[in-house]
Amino acid sequence: MKLSPSVEESESYLKKLFAEQSDFQSKRLFIGESEFRLFYFDTLIDSGVVQEFILKPLLQRPEAKIQDVVSILDYAETDQFEDAAQAIIYGKTVMQRDGEDKLYLLGADLKKERSINIPTNERVLRGANEAFIENLDTNLNLMRKLINSTDFIVKTYTLGRISQTKVAVMYLKSIATPAIVEELDRRLQSIDIDYVEVPGFLDELIREKKYSLFPQLLITERPDRARSYLMEGKVVVAGAGSPDTLILPVSFWSFFQSADDYQIGWLLGSIFRLLRICCFFITIGLPGLYVAVSAFNSQLLPINFVNTLQSSLKYVAFPPVFEALAMMLLLEILREATIRLASPVGQTIGVVGGIVIGTVVVQSNLVSNTMVIVAALTGLASFIVPSYEMSSAMRLLSYPALLLSAQFGLFGLAFFFVMVCIHLCHLDTMGYPYYTPPFSFGDAKDTLIRAPIWNLRGRPADTAPGNRIRLRNPRGWKR
């Protein structure tokens, strides 16, 4: 709607629009020979900023132009009521001088945010200890401090008809593949929804395979990790109201990488990464392997181990598949209770509950000693993976593996892993393969192992085809 030069008409329109908003304010001011109106939400503005940088300069120079007087960087003008209403909702102060057919949008919003803390979900022993927070501007500030380059591009979107959530897409222009940026832009522009939660909603709305358990976008709260993926040609998506960012496209192997891998020696980093990948198979297959060798294929084990296993199962009332299911469900219940309760209480429940319940179920002959060990090792193996989403997928996949093993033994377990591998080969993210078997040393340099930094000369060919050279003369001191 076109603006009227009359401040009374503007006030009437905005008061009608925000009639049910108890915190909407309209202030009438006479400064010099001019009449002004200020429109704002008093819960969103910083009254000190309004007083110091808007009203005080106007009192000193009442007849001067507004843009020459107010000392606020966030300054804009409009002649549309819709733009003014949107600015008020975002916490700006809207001003109009009587007789002028334009509104001044002045950024005087109240800044309330928590301080930058250490990461809570991605703790490391070496490296940076800064984490993103819920304020998008602060998160962009952290990223710009880490990447001081004109190639660093930030594009902002507003998603959600009602929520009007701000989302920022970050990439390096000289490294990222334009096709990825264009495809992401197309998908974000096509989202038509009332409100958006970042990262959960965006993850589901832009991923290819909607029903796959495996995470197809990597979520991180660490600015340094986001920077490292930007340097590989990937794209980072951040949103207002969330301390987590999305990274895409990523491969299956990205979920086993940790920031610690690059802060310690390459040999230690490779060993720890191999350990995480081994824990992937342990989490999914160990309960099923226990059931298979207990009920079907005990002849594959040494005779002493078979005797020990059978003696532990002698007085157990339930078959191995039921005791395995019971212990896995109990582990999930303890885990959820530990997360949902207050931190001191949750730690106590996790430790004491695990010890007490484990002891009771063994003494009551509901499960065997071996099954308690299997359940504990399975739980610990799932926690070693740096990605919460991949860890959760691994634990859920252990249930169908267990049921197939209970029906068909080791053949059922092997069949399940073949099906998982086929499913991984069918996945892709933003049109790029999700899983590439690392059968060559070139593919395994930063997947199965972490090769020395001086040997990681090239960026991934799929996400950075135009600028693959990462290192030119890394050890130039050595002649």
From TrEMBL:
Source taxon at top rank: Bacteria
Annotated family: Belongs to the GerABKA family.
Residues spanning the signal sequence: none
Keyword list, A-Z: Membrane, Transmembrane, Transmembrane helix
Name this polypeptide is given: Spore germination protein
Species annotation: Paenibacillus lignilyticus
Membrane-crossing segments per the record: 274-296, 316-334, 341-360, 366-385, 397-420
Taxonomic lineage from the root: Bacteria, Bacillati, Bacillota, Bacilli, Bacillales
Signal as UniProt keyword: no
Record carries keyword Chaperone: no
